[in-house]
Design a protein that fits this description.
By secondary structure, this protein is of the alpha+beta class. Helix content is 41%, strand content 20%. The protein has helices spanning 2-22, 34-38, 42-51, 74-78, 80-86, 89-118, 139-150, 165-193, 367-422, and strands at 203-205, 209-214, 217-226, 232-246, 252-260, 270-271, 277-282, 303-312, 318-326, 330-332, 334-336, 340-342, 347-349, 357-359. It is found in: Membrane.
Length: 423
């Protein structure tokens, strides 16, 4: 028995050795708590950040934010209409069917109870008895009569008689409540069908944003377009910079939102979106990209959220399309390829080139550094004439002073010689 156990252990050791030699060693690091993760070296955190970029708004426009630990759930019921509209289609259809089915069953049960209490079930087929509802002989027929009453079908086989006041009252109540249920559910379905979310699917943004020179200024640009022939009325564009910051007092503000000026003061943010347009943001002293250079851009953890709003021409409802750009999607030194060409009597847009860019000569310095270089280069040009005049004036005064000193020395020497000759 001892030999058997020794042989088994030897075999297991050999198998383990073979596995160690053949398979690579995998070390599973334990899951660290939040405090320990914060205490890790900064270079590890930077490497992890480079590997995975967490978006605030996805490319399709959906916000990547989940609301957790919401205790006041009753607030959703106070606005039940919006809650139903925001539900997914499968839940909306389920609620739609369930509401009608429950109301039909509820009123069908009441019709059956009335017939049962009055004794109509005991006088089925009795021509001398006047029931509350004629030809109602069970729960199934009561359920069918409830459906006919609420949907106003009126087949004419089951009818209410004038000898049943409680039935007349129930008929009035069911008619009113049925109208309210129809208005609520049909209105909910209509609003959900006519939502302008699908209209935003035909509003496209360029895959990348670019930074290049335009009219001698460094600009951040992206392109927007509309694929439909029906236009967006009163379209406007705005942009936000999503970046965490720390105040001077030490307060950390996660995902701080900063406005990016895309022509608010000049009116360039109001678009006539018939053909694709390039939206430009001038990087000046008020821009959050004022001190960012080409080398520094990949190190920044930021996200640009662009929002296009307008009214749908066909329905008049407000539509909003969103997209975002992270640092890896911002190309420094590129421009967008033109997509608009002039054909015979019309302009044609080539959407195959909508996302294409081409490289252009762009300085790698930040806008602040370019402004400083320009100011240094302008100093000799603006002060050259005056500085040269001042230099000439100083040289002339120095020469005059030297000539005056030499003249005084010569006059002194001549006076000394005359005195010596007199003596």
């Amino acid at each position: 028995m001892a030999k058997l156990t020794e042989s088994m252990t030897n075999v297991l050791e050999e198998d383990s050795m073979e596995q160690d030699i053949e398979s690579p060693v995998t070390i599973h690091q334990p899951k660290l708590p939040k405090q320990a993760r914060e205490d890790l070296p900064k270079n590890i955190n930077k490497e992890c950040a480079k590997r995975k970029i967490q978006r605030y708004v996805r490319k399709d426009g959906k916000c990547n934010v989940h609301h957790g630990n919401v205790r006041e759930t009753y607030r959703y019921l106070t606005d039940i209409f919006t809650t139903l509209v925001d539900l997914k289609w499968r839940f909306n259809l389920l609620i739609f069917v369930m509401v009608y089915t429950v109301t039909w069953l509820f009123f069908g049960m009441i019709w059956w109870l009335i017939a049962y209490v009055r004794g109509d079930m005991d006088h089925i087929g009795d021509s001398t008895w006047t029931p509350c509802v004629s030809n109602l002989n069970g729960f199934v027929s009561a359920f069918l009569f409830s459906i006919e009453t609420e949907t106003t079908i009126g087949y004419g086989y089951r009818v209410i008689t004038d000898k049943c006041p409680e039935g007349i009252i129930l008929l009035l109540v069911q008619s009113v409540l049925g109208s309210i249920v129809n208005a609520f559910m049909v209105g909910c379905m209509f609003v959900k069908i006519s939502q302008p979310k699908k209209r935003a699917e035909t509003l496209v943004f360029s895959t990348n944003a670019v930074i290049s020179m335009r009219d001698g200024k460094l600009c951040l640009m992206f392109r927007v377009g509309d694929l439909r022939n029906s236009h967006i009325v009163e379209a406007s564009i705005r942009a936000k910079l999503i970046k965490s910051k720390q105040t001077k007092e030490g307060e950390f503000i996660p995902l701080n939102q900063t406005d990016i000026n895309v022509g608010y003061y000049t009116g360039d943010d109001r678009l006539f979106l018939v053909s694709p347009l390039i939206i430009s943001h001038e990087i000046n002293q008020q821009s959050p990209f004022w001190e960012i250079s080409k080398a520094q851009l990949p190190k920044e953890e930021l996200e640009i959220v662009v929002i296009l709003e307008g009214m749908v021409e066909a329905t008049g409802m407000t539509c909003q399309a969103r997209s975002s750009y992270v640092t890896s999607e911002i190309l420094w030194g590129y421009r967008f390829t033109p997509v608009l060409t002039l054909e015979d009597g019309f302009y044609e847009v080539d959407y195959n080139s909508f996302h294409e860019t081409y490289e252009t000569n762009t300085p790698v310095y930040s806008a602040k550094e370019l402004a400083e270089m320009a100011s240094r280069a302008e100093l000799p040009l603006t002060w050259s004439v005056s500085s040269k005049l001042d230099q000439h004036a100083e040289l002339e005064t120095e020469e005059e002073e030297k000539n005056q000193e030499d003249q005084n020395e010569r006059n002194g020497d001549v006076a000394n010689l005359e005195n010596e000759s007199k003596v």
